[in-house]
Amino acid sequence: MNKAEQQKRIRKVMIHALNAALRAGVLPLSTRNKGMAEAEYSEITVCGKPTLVNWSASGFRDLRVSVWWDYTPKRLPVLMKKRRVHYITRPLPDVGRNRFPLIVGMCASCYLCLTENEGLSLSRGGEFFSVYIRRSTAECIDQIPDVSLDG
Q: Domain of life, per the record (predicted)?
């Protein structure tokens, strides 16, 4: 898969995940105490797959949001489960890359800006970083319809 195809697939899942997180009310849409919320996470379902969405402050009115789609935590090593909260607030799973295919179908992060009307928009050029797509997941992602960000 070339980089353009990878970015298209990542964008598709990320937009679905962000919309699902907004509908579920898990992403903070306002600042708290003159700053953002601490690093947090939520497990939701996106396009029929278990998904972990985590976020942390990355500047004034900016969030770093990471999505781990088709997330299967039961396949994690026992040691990782013991330090779960620290582990799941990072952009990528804190395991070797060779274990990624066992626990996630896709990972990606982006920056979101809180708008004046307490909505969200992609910031910093809408670039995705800390990306990973399992090869067998590409066809599944291609079947997902395109949508736009609801925030």
A: Bacteria
